[in-house]
Amino acid sequence: MPRTAVRPLHVDRIGAKTTGIIAQTIVMVAMALAWILGLKQFSHTMILGIALGVAGASFAVALPQAGRWYPPNMQGLFMGLAGAGNVGVVIDATLAPRLAAVYGWQAVFGPPSSPCSSWRSSTLSFPRRPRSR
After folding, report:
1. Domain for residue 111, yes or no?
2. 31 in a domain, yes or no?
3. Which of 3, 14, 65, 129 has the greatest count of CB atoms below 10 A from its CB?
4. Dist. CA 49–CA 16, nearest whole Å
């Protein structure tokens, strides 16, 4: 991947929390637009796929964010719990086809907006920086 494609993120400069908030915002805006406006062309679907890929890549933000809050002897446990957050993929794969069958495919993008909004609000409110040990 070219350096210029990665350079704008500057994760080390802006920090894990800010990177996570930016990633959450990108995903939430993409899902809201897909829900409200629909995906009328194949290119719209591809753009949504790229935006949702940001959600998968943001997993790398969760691990350092979770790990630094705990003492070294507990970090493995809490990083494992952060990794368990991938259960959302399983839930999505199970529920999305049922939601689409009952309410239409666009309804798949609406229900996740509530937990996404709640999570983003809590990320903005909490954790600041861990105390130094």
Report:
1. yes
2. yes
3. 65
4. 23
**pLDDT above 60 for 67:** yes
Distance of CA 80 to the CA centre of its chain: 17
Q: Which two tokens stand for residue 103?
A: 């309410």
Rounded to 5 degrees, what angle do the CA atoms 8, 12, 17 make? 95
Tokens describing residue 51: 């935006």
Quick one: 109 exposed, middle or buried, by C-beta within 10 A (0-12, 13-18, 19+)?
buried
In a domain, 131, yes or no: no
Residue 105 in any domain: the answer is yes
Which pLDDT tens digit goes with each residue over 82-127? Answer: 777 667 777 778 888 888 899 888 778 777 766 767 766 766 676 5
Taking the model in full, what pTM does it have?
0.65
